[in-house]
Amino acid sequence: MYWMLLLVPLAIVLHHLMPGNALLVFGATALAIVPLAALMSRATGALAARLGPSIGGLLNATFGNAAEFIIALAALRAGLHGMVKASIAGTIIGNILFVLGLSMVLGGLRHGQQRYDAANARMQATMLTLAVITLILPASYRAVVPGAEASLQSISLVLSVLLLLVYLATVVFTLRGAGAHSDSDHAAGHAHDASLSNGRAMLLLAGTSIGIIWMSEILVGVVEPASQQLGFSDAFTGVFVLAVIGGAAEQATALVAARRNQMSLSLSIALGSGVQLALLVAPLLVLLSYVVGPQPMSLLFGPGLVLSVLVAVIITGQVASDGRADWLRGVQLLGLYVILATLFWFVPDAGT
Question: pLDDT of 58-71, one tens digit each?
Fold first, then answer.
């Protein structure tokens, strides 16, 4: 995969020499982000191997979503609030339906029925349900209360702070060792580069972060014209294109873990990433929009996005509640993902 790093200078050259060819620049930049995200995952894995299971797992979870956060922040600076919300919702949907579903299919076909920590899966599903309920409330409030528009930004601000407090409580719970088992699994999945020294890992982490920031700025600048050339709606681009680009490295790790019969690790990556996006990334972007965006962003997600995340969380909670995984359950999750993709493809305003 690392030969794809050649796409980084190529994307920069194309951006400067062929700015009018948005589709070519978009393709090169999107592909260039994938190896950068993989190198970032490698660096965090090396650090996590030395920092212990709790801190290491938290570090992996945090930087596992770094690419998505950087892309969303670049879109936020450009005022593309709809694209930001679509990418957040899309990454959650992609992780809990596509990544988890494909992991169950790959693992089930190779190992038959697999087992994982049911208690941890239920906790993650509960956290996701809490986040989805919080995202539903602003849209519901606007629908049933006349003149609610004036209060939505204040409501979003308060809800964002509350979600961050819930996430902080989760971090404290984890660091005290109650969630050490799942964190250990998570760190173990990234420990293949433990030979990388701390200094080199920090330099690699800094370099890849700068690279992803640079690529994200270029990507956001061409995403709208490129989407128009491809015939994609903004919602489809955010939910099913940008979401896949940002999470490619972590998604690959989850799939490899399932093939190695490490289903607890695979499920921890898929659900844990969704939880962090909903409880940390989304509210943090709302707060940052007061500083970096042209105008503040609210937590008012479109009914289509909210409904899509809600049905994804419901079926995932049902499938992942008893500690057993097989290829048929994976097919069920993938089936819903394709259904949602079809809806967003044929109904351009599905995300609004």
Answer: 565 566 677 778 88
The secondary structure of residue 325, as a DSSP letter, is: E
The CA distance from 262 to 192, in Å, is 14
Average per-residue pLDDT for the chain = 80
DSSP state of 114: E
Q: List CB contacts of 30: < 8 A, sequence separation 6 or more.
A: 219, 241, 245
Q: How many CB atoms lie within 10 A of CB 240?
A: 21
Locate all alpha helices (DSSP H) within 78-179, ordered by sequence: 81-93, 100-111, 118-144, 149-175
Distance CA 141, CA 139 (A): 5
- At residue 80, the 3 state secondary structure works out as coil
C-alpha neighbours within 13 Å on the C-beta side of residue 206: 6
Question: Please, are residues 8 and 158 in contact by the beta-carbon 8 Å criterion?
Answer: no
pLDDT at 179: 44
Which has more confidence, 326 or 46? 326
Collapse the DSSP code of 97 into the 3-class scheme (helix H, G, I; strand E, B; otherwise coil) and give the result: helix
